[in-house]
Amino acid sequence: MKQIPKDAIKCLDKGFVRLVDSMGGDDAIIQAARVSYGKGTSKISQDRGLIRYLMRHRHTTPFEMVEFKFHCKMPIFAARQWVRHRTANINEYSLRYSEARDEFYYPDLEHIQFQSALNKQGRKGKVPTELKQKVLDYFKEISTRSFSIYSELNEAGVARELARAILPVNLYTEWYWKNDLHNLLHFISLRSDSHAQYEIRVYSDAMAESVKKAAPFAWEAYQDYVVKGMRFSRIEQNLFEKKLPVRVVDDMLEDLSYQITATLHYNKPREEGDLFQLYQKQGGSDSESDFKLKWDSGEIELGNVRELREFISKLKSLKK
Ligand SMILES: Cc1cc2nc3c(=O)[nH]c(=O)nc-3n(C[C@H](O)[C@H](O)[C@H](O)COP(=O)(O)OP(=O)(O)OC[C@H]3O[C@@H](n4cnc5c(N)ncnc54)[C@H](O)[C@@H]3O)c2cc1C
Predict the structure, then answer these.
(1) Which of 190, 192, 194, 226 to mutate to test the pocket of ligand 1 (most atoms within 8 A of CB)?
(2) Best mutation site among 85, 183, 197 for ligand 1, i.e. most ligand atoms within 8 A of its Cβ?
(3) Helix, strand, coil shares of the chain as percentages rounded to 5?
(4) N or C: which end of the chain has fewer CB within 10 A?
(5) 24 CB contacts (<8 Å, ≥6 apart)?
(6) Is 297 near ligand 1, meaning CB less than 6 Å away?
């Protein structure tokens, strides 16, 4: 396919990602998690909370109920990295069966950089314009020359499956690629990351657009718990346990007691007179007058009760 389809997202100079078909979205995740049929009667906020819970606790199978099928066109060297993601179903344009097309990837000048000294798998720094132009000229020279030899071999009747081996890896290929949301998010987490090669990152970012539309709650949870969430190693936790002043941990625990109280009250309003007791039940240790001052300040943030309680138990483990 030489032209970029109207409903596709253009990637690199001649490539694209196009969502061909999809099955399900946030609803399908909820449905599977509740092992029920239909939407049920739950509120939107409960659905969001459940998806966030599943993502936080890596309860992943409900996310596998959502499927995406993409038509993608990318340089062979990007496909080489892409194909390492083994959980997808792929059907690729065959150069044994069909003739190759004269379509090669030529990088934008701004993406021609030096080898990074720090990251052995990365690029960095500004390349002088003359050298950039030279790189681009070489790309074009080798592509044009190899394609003309390929065409000559083709015309002479040499088998296409052999003649193709003369073509470089910046040749464009196409495939249909189908995967479920859990594995697609895994792909995106690796390939939209700043450590991934630019040329595959643009495809990963393009596919992410479909996820955002089909499963906005799952996407939000993925951002909060996977992309922007942090895990600490045992060594790092040991450091926290040793170095983090107990007073700081206690301050955070105190804040959490307020947040849980406010959230419980928001979810199911209590009598004014019962609030202090509710706060104490959540582990709050301020005096009643301090509690009233803070409560009236209106500065207490709401959260998710279950998540806040999980955070409390993590913080408490740091005080051991
Ligand atoms: C920045 C970066 C640099 C890389 N550099 C290199 C490199 O130098 N050399 C290189 O060879 N590769 C490299 N890779 C590829 C990398 O090692 C993985 O092969 C690729 O990212 C696919 O990851 P995956 O196996 O988790 O994904 P998938 O194949 O999609 O698998 C998803 C998950 O399913 C499970 N799974 C799937 N198949 C199996 C199986 N057969 N057995 C057990 N569990 C399975 C695993 O839990 C896996 O995490 C690089 C990847 C990145 C992102």
Answers:
(1) 190
(2) 85
(3) 55, 10, 30
(4) C
(5) 65, 66, 67, 214, 215
(6) no
According to the model, what pLDDT value does residue 6 have?
87
The per-residue pLDDT for 3 is: 79
Look at ligand 1, atom 44, and give the residue with the nearest C-alpha. 86
| 221: helix, strand or coil | helix
Nearest Cα residue to atom 26 of ligand 1? 85
Find out whether the beta carbon of 84 lies less than 6 Å from any atom of ligand 1: yes
Q: Which residues are marked as active site?
A: 191
Domains: count for the chain: 2
Each residue of 110-140: pLDDT tens digit? 999 888 877 777 888 888 899 999 999 999 9
| pLDDT value, residue 38 | 47
User: Quick count: other Cβ atoms within 10 Å of Cβ 12?
Assistant: 22
Calpha distance 289→89 (Å, rounded): 63
Co-location of 198 and 216 in the same domain: yes
Q: Does the beta carbon of 186 lie inside 6 Å of ligand 1?
A: yes
User: pLDDT tens digits, residue range 190-206?
Assistant: 999 999 999 999 999 99
| CA of residue 85 to ligand 1 center, whole Å | 6
Q: What residues make up the domain containing 139? A: 9-227
Asked if residue 270 and residue 212 are part of one domain, the reply reads no
The answer for residues whose C-beta is within 8 angstroms of residue 216's C-beta and 6 or more apart is 26
CATH value at residue 203? 3.30.1360.170
pLDDT digit string (tens) for 50-65?
A: 999 999 999 999 999 9
The percent of residues in the chain predicted with pLDDT above 90, rounded, is: 85
C-beta of 83 in contact with ligand 1 (< 6 A): no
